[in-house]
Amino acid sequence: MGWQNCCEDRGNSSKINMNIGKSKAGDCTLIATLHQKYINTGFLSSVGLPFLKLLYKSMISSQYAFCFIAREDDKIIGFISGVINVGRR
User: Fold this and answer.
1) Is 46 exposed, middle or buried (0-12, 13-18, 19+ CB in 10 A)?
2) Model confidence, pTM
3) Which of 30, 40, 60, 66 makes a 20 to 30 Å CA pair with 21?
4) Could you tell me which of 1, 24, 3 has the C-alpha nearest to residue 72?
5) Phi and psi for 3 in degrees, rounded to 5?
C-alpha cells in the first residue's frame, strides 16, 4: 500500500498537505514519543519510552498488527495502530 495524499481546505485559504501510509521500523521512536506526549493516561503511558519503542517496533513488524502514520512536510504528526489477534505473535 502506498501513501495517500490528503488535502484539507480549512476555509481560510490555508491547506493541510498530509500523507498517510504504513509505518516502518525506523518510525517507532517518533511514534512512541507522540504516544508518550499526547496519550498521557492509561497503562501504556506509564511504561516509559523504551517500552513504547519496542511495542511499536513489534507491531510494525507483526502480521497480526498494523500501524499507519500521518506526515505533514516530512514530519510525523499522528498515527493509528491496532492488532487483529492478541493471542498471536
Assistant:
1) exposed
2) 0.76
3) 40
4) 3
5) -80, 140
